[in-house]
Structures are given as structure tokens and as C-alpha cells.
Amino acid sequence: MINVEALVIRSTTYGESNKIITLYSKEMGKVGVMARGAKKPKSKLGPGSQLLTHGHYLFQKGRGLGTLYQGEAIETFRYIKSDLKAMAYAAYMVDMVDKLTEDAQPFPSLFEWLLKLLELLEEKRPPEVLRLIFDCRMLGLAGVAPEFDQCASCGGKEAPFSFSIAFGGFLCHQCARKDERSVSLPNAVSRLFYLFKRIDPNKIGDISIKPETIKFMTALLDAYYDHYSGLRLKTKQFIDQLEKMDY
Ligand SMILES: [Zn+2]
């Protein structure tokens, strides 16, 4: 038997009464387990096997899926689940972690970081800002970390910078002409990119950023992701749709 602290990052129905859940655990990274009978109304596995639950999980390892014996919720993120927009952003974050991690590769700092972002979402912090912070860090996990510390071409550290997809990050004023499609960034924006890539979520105070700036940064990162990762997530498309409706 193995006991882990984990977040449920995926939960699907299997057969009439079972669920297959994917745990992202602090101790073991990603683990898939079968929660037998979890869909039955009185199942003791019901509450703990819902998407986004943070809890303690006791399971037995199998050759493929493990078998869940106990799931005790610590936090169920009630506000997030009650709010369509917050839920859309949370679903996107856990989906990304699911897609960008391998089974059984422990990465405790990623677990803590994801949990912290969800807690901030639960505290009604602006989901768009949390998503930017999430995206800046996850690009590194996807193996395509953008260069936000200096010019990606010459290493120059002096602002103003431009954002270049082709060069994979910032270009300084001198090098910007090497990519005619690079987009020049106001200094405040290049500072935010630099900050978001390394910020400790515990130190995210009440960052206030203009909605236009958030949209601008999100669009740049989206284009960057599309170019390098090839990931097409339904959870991301859903956020895009909500934003279009100005929800
Ligand atoms: Zn340069």
C-alpha cells in the first residue's frame, strides 16, 4: 500500500460505477488508479475522486492502473467548482500538467506550485494573471523555455526588448531587425515576463495589471506555445471561447 498527498488532475467514468482517476502526487508524480464503485451514491471513494480534489490517497500499485482504497479530501475547491470561469482556468492548468508530465516521475516543487496556484484561484485572484504565471513556467516543463532574461541572439541585457517567436524569447533593440515579425514590448511588459517566469507563488501579492496588457501577453505566449509545443488542448479552447464571449 502506498500513501500519497495528491491532486486529482483527471477523473473519468469507467463502466457503470467505477472511475479512473489520475493523481498528481507530491511523492510519486503522476499515478493512474481505479476507484471501484466511486460513482455509487454512497461510495466512500466518491468525494475524494472528483476532479481537482486535493487529499491523501491510499492505493495499491498494479501492473497498469493501481487500485484506490481510500481518498481523504483536504481541500475540494468549492469556489472554483461553483464558478464557470475559475473552473475553466483550473481545468486548463491540470490538463497541461497531465499532458506535460510522464508517469511516476516525482517533481514535488511542481506539485506545490500547482497547488498554490489553485489555492490562489480559490481565493478569487484573477484567473488571467494566474494563467500567465502558469504558462511562463510550464513552457520550461514543455522543454521550450523562452529566453526572458536577456537577448536570445546576442545576450544583451538592455531594454527595450522585442518578443520573437523565431528566436525563442527576447531580442534587444539592436537584434530586433533579425526577425521582422518580432513584436516590440513596453519595458513594463518585458519586466512582467521576466518576473512571471521565476515568481514564487507565495509572493504573488495583489499584482494588478491592465486587462489589455494581460490580453497582449497571453496572445504572445499562445502563439509561442502553438509554434513550439504542438499541444492543442480542449480546455484551452474553452477559455478562449469564454474570453470571446467576455464572460
Ligand atoms: Zn541582441
Order of helices and strands: EEEEEHHHHEEEHHH
Instruction: Report the principal-axis shape.
Output: elongated
The major pleated sheet works out as: 5 strands, mixed, barrel
Bound molecule kinds, no repeats: zinc ion
Structural class: alpha+beta
**CATH architectural designation of the largest domain:** Up-down Bundle
Give the CA-CA distance, first to last residue: 45 Å
Low-confidence stretches: none
Overall mean pLDDT stands at 93
Strand content: 15-25%
CATH topology of the largest domain: de novo design (two linked rop proteins)
Order of strands, widest sheet: 1-2-3-5-4
Q: Based on DSSP secondary structure assignment, what is the total number of beta strands?
A: 8
Alpha plus pi helix count: 7
Notes on the protein architecture:
33% of the residues are buried. The protein has seven helices and eight strands; from the N terminus they run βββββααααβββααα. The strands form two sheets. The chain has a five-stranded mixed β-barrel with strand order 1-2-3-5-4. The protein has a three-stranded antiparallel sheet with strand order 7-6-8, with no helix packed on it. The protein has helices spanning 78-82, 84-100, 108-122, 127-141, 187-198, 211-228, 234-244; strands spanning 2-14, 18-25, 29-35, 54-60, 66-75, 161-164, 169-172, 183-184. It is 38% helix and 22% strand. It folds into two domains: 2-76, OB fold (Dihydrolipoamide Acetyltransferase, E2P) (Beta Barrel); 79-146 and 179-244, de novo design (two linked rop proteins) (Up-down Bundle). Bound molecules: zinc ion (ZN). The site of zinc ion (ZN) has 8 residues, from strand 7. Residues 151, 153-154, 156, 171-172, 174-175 line the site of zinc ion.
